Amino acid sequence: MAYFLGVDTGGTYTDAVIVDEAADRVIGSAKALTTRADLALGIGRAVDAALAGAGVAAGEVALVSLSTTLATNALVEGQGGRVALVFIGFDVSDLARGGLTAGLAGDPVILLDGGHSHAGGEATALDLARLEAEVAPLGPQVVGFAVAARFATRNNAHELAARDLIRRVTGRPVTCSFELSANLGGPKRALTAVLNARLIGMIDRLVSACERHLAVRGIRAPLMVVRGDGALISAAVARERPIETILSGPAASIIGARWLTGAQDALVADIGGTTTDVALLRSGLPEIDPEGARVGGFRTMVEAVAMRTTGLGGDSEVHLLTEGLEGGLRLGPRRLIPVSLLAVEHGAMVHAALDRALAAPATGELDGRFVIPTGGEIEGLTGGLNRREAGLLARITGAVPVATLIASRLEAAALERLVARGLVMLAGVTPSDASHVLGGLAAWDLLAAEKALRLLGRRRNGRGERFAAEPAQLAQAIIDQLTAQTVDCLLEAAFAEDTAFAGENPVVLAHNSLTRAGLDRHQGVVAATLQLGVPLIGLGASAPAYYGAVGARLGCPTILPEHAGVANAIGAVVGQVSQRASGLVSSPAEGEFVAHLPDGLQAFTDLEQALAALEAALTREASANARRAGAENLRFATSRDIREANVEGRTMFIEASVSVTAAGRPRVAHGVGAAESA
Fold first, then answer.
1. Are residues 424 and 418 in contact, defined by beta-carbon separation less than 8 angstroms?
2. Is the separation of the CB atoms in 34 and 41 below 8 Å?
3. pLDDT, tens digit, for every residue of 199-251?
4. Is 224 contained in some domain?
5. 8 A C-beta contact, residue 5 and residue 65
6. Same domain (yes/no): 462, 348
């Protein structure tokens, strides 16, 4: 009998489930707080509790699969290590394309001569001497390098040469753009490579933490990781290509929702601590985004589930809006540690700071906020800090009130920089605190939540009036705002997926006055009613607390399945391994066909021969990658896209794209030590 262990590490909680493969059911589950300083602690607590609850011995686990929202959260919150981009064959103006400047966020760029033509021929020689001189001093200051060369998908020689030199000189990880996408669009490929390089350390730490605990428990089953399209890959592949794990958690949740409910058509919303992820199930399958995953405002070239990810969760930052007379609220996109959670481990300090602030005659902007080191002072993350930032970090030796730490606006800006680097985290009022005050949650320190909301409510709006007289009043306003922003997110996703509105801006439609009137069931000279046309499946530990009101507002059935709080971990172990290899046949001259093979260019005089050679090479590549990713009993699917033009009555070949996909179930351990087979 085979038992599968699924693990999902999120911003707040780490979940674990045990699935009985033969019975096709969950027999054990558990949740533990994610421990940022040492992820293995949270993983271990969840895994151990799930095994104990299921009554399953470590040696009986045949497969372990991991999903995570850490990469997604990092991109949404603008966090990650400092990286350097080697931009080969491009100029400064290309940095403004594809969101690359925003993605770099001020990190260094090396513009280098080189690159190839659209046909794969060398356009300019690669300047390796200059590259060596520029990367050597950058090595200690960055966590990794991204390399993107012009037309690298037609000829990857310059990216490979740059990668080998950078590794030799700096010893840092290097991401080549051609490894992540076979599509044209150099700046967008470069952005994808930059984000990948930024995430390598984070995902490596996560995988290593999981491996450490599995080794301690004696679990020798193979470890898989969920990719953004829901497929599984080996831990080794995930380490090299962490960008493929963005939307890993959301993709796993969609698969888990389908497995838990059997639903064919539904809008699936998964609320976590940091984000809300929304996707459509159509005929039992999630849609794949043909343009690549969009996360945190960035459009990558990573194939992933068509998902709208919004920085809205149970631990979202609560902003008081002071514009206008009445003021208002806005949640996210940044995640804070809830004050009620911080007080569980630092109760004396938290309560003392809140009591001092409540006793003061006026409330300051920093009152009720705290800062905590993440334990992330790893090599590369602290590179590039200025003297003020480094000095401030040195003073944050434990959890402290922000008001006692910050003495100027310059120091406040330095703190924001440390947060963006992932070196520290902020704590403050969140919807989770509001839920404690209203009785929806009872896991953490209720009194700390009440004090923090009372303090925040004492802030004043444009009329000079307090935002709220009592904590419960502000708490209800926060939960109402979460409902409103969730409804907006769901409507945007629904309009984007409904073909009747193709070509229209879903954000504009969701906020249109007619849409609002329809939700309000307006009855006047014009009568308007609007509702979601498919059921809503709510996932996440806090979904039962929030999604009843969301479904009522949208006028649709709401499904809250059993085990909704661990759907990601369930989805992590019911997927398949899938690897795709793509290539091109071009025609530099009439009657000449060039196959862009993985190991170089090969010319043919017959198109079919060129296509056959490319398909054979891609099949070998996809097969090898799938087996390396942990699959067995492979199935192959091949697709051709031949582009031709009619010129003066003659059909002229332009180019052809070929893709081969190899898919299969993960290899599972058939007893101790079997994980290394094949």
1. yes
2. no
3. 888 888 889 999 999 999 999 888 888 887 777 888 888 888 777 777 787 78
4. no
5. yes
6. yes
